[in-house]
Amino acid sequence: MSSDSAVLTEPSCDRTEWLAITLLYLAGCTTALHIGKIPVAIPLIREQWQLSLTQTGLIVSLYSILIAISGLLLGLLIRRLGYIPFAVIGVGTVGVGGILGSFAQGLPLLLVGRSIEGLGWIISVIVLPSIISSLSAPKDRSLVMAFWASFLPVGAGFMLLLAPALQAYGGWQLSWWVASVVSIAAAVSVFAVTARHRVRLAHLARVKQVGNFDDLKKPLVWLLSGCFFIYSFSYIPLISYFPLLLVETTDISLTVVSTITALVLICNALGSIMVGVLSRRGVDFSSMLIAGMLGGGVCALLVFSPLSSTAVRITAAFMFSTLGGMVPGVLFSTMPKTASHPSSVGLVIGLMMQMSGVGMFLGGVLVPGVVDYFNAWTAAGFLILFSASCGILMACLAAKKARQL
Fold first, then answer.
1. Which domains, from first to last, does the chain contain?
2. pLDDT grade for 206, boundaries at 50, 70 and 90
3. Which long-range contacts (CB under 8 A, 24 or more apart) does 107-116 make?
């Protein structure tokens, strides 16, 4: 080990900084508010600016495009320049992008604002779990990282529930403002946390050299990232098109459908948290990963099956989200163990997020594509079940590679 890389040694500490971790987790949740504000706002924005379906889709898919393009690159950059400054920059940038977007009088400025939000969101998702992992004692790390994986459904689901009331009072722009102000306040709390624990986090500060990139050569890292690809490919389309499926096949009002969808999204957090609890009881990570993939695939088939009643569809959607939530819970829990050094966690997460972005994008295109081609929602269920089967194979291979380490 070189002298430069030696300064990166993580300080030995058996105490988990629960307050600091909670504040960082809440900061992550504030970045997810900017994802949850979109579904409810889209109908208003589309009507206000007379947007085509393609233009509307660009607003929705912009995050996934940015993630697919820049996840690994940002992971490399952050690893090189240091995590601590990017922690504040990431969360704050999300808020700044939201404020800019709230002033939009047309699609171009809104897309610029969404792009800035998306950039800040990717940075936050790479940096915050790396810091949280370093503030956790080894005995608590799996639980903490599984808990972190729930930030997206918690933040987005909460905003999905709150946004209709905000829009009724102040239009879609009020949702943008509320989410942005909360994110900027969270950036201040992140600054305070990192300053308070700067000694313990010194190994994540900027250094001249951070060693090589051997972690990117590990088959295990790519297999786990592939599992995140499968998860995003399946989960995002189902959540996106589940409301449309209910509207087309039931007499449930759009307001109730939106509430059901928000609750389904929030249930995803239960799966992630369940991973932390089960791991403490000695359940193998590969078993949880396989259970999440298999259960999610079967439930997706029930959601889209024409033989399912409304009650079965809704129940299956809740089960799909809960079981599917085990997948990101497992993946975030294993990343600190997979990375060769704490300073490499962000690099590994960057690759994982890039694969996630590709999965979001392809799932958003292929799932509705097969529905149109076969003129049947059932096709979406079979496609998701097939992708889950591929994910199970990757999980089995990953378990084999992990045993060889």
1. 15-404 (1.20.1250.20)
2. low
3. 107/49, 107/51, 107/55, 107/59, 110/45, 110/59, 111/58, 111/59, 111/62, 113/176, 114/59, 114/62, 114/63, 115/62, 115/66
